[in-house]
Amino acid sequence: MPYIVTEPCIGVKDKSCMTVCPVDCIYEGDDQVYIHPDECIDCGLCEAECPAEAIKPDTEGGLDKWLEINAKYAAAWPNITEKRDAPSDAKEFDGVEGKFEKYFSAEPGSGD
Predict the structure, then answer these.
(1) Does domain 3-81 have CATH number 3.40.50.2300?
(2) Most exposed among 23, 35, 47, 81, judged by the fewest C-beta atoms under 10 Å?
(3) Within a 10 A sphere around the Cβ of 101, how many other Cβ atoms?
(4) DSSP state letter for 8
(5) What is this structure's pTM?
(6) C-alpha atoms less than 13 angstroms from C-alpha of 47 in its C-beta half-sphere
């Protein structure tokens, strides 16, 4: 049961999750982070750390799309292990609905 990052992370990209991940399985996109499901050891530490409540176990219903997206982009994006500041406009994205359709970016982040 890996954990995955879902839509609430888009634009918020707080990155607190990476400070507690013991296996460094978090990867950075332009507008969000994702967990590599094959590297996740299912410890759940990241879920409790996420202020946007974007991290969920893949066993939670209705997350098949997000499991696929996490696997695809975590395999392509750079690894990130050091917490940096969230985007300056992150608070504007917190709690916004429909962010995937409006704001998703397939571009990588900068990583470490």
Answers:
(1) no
(2) 23
(3) 8
(4) G
(5) 0.91
(6) 13
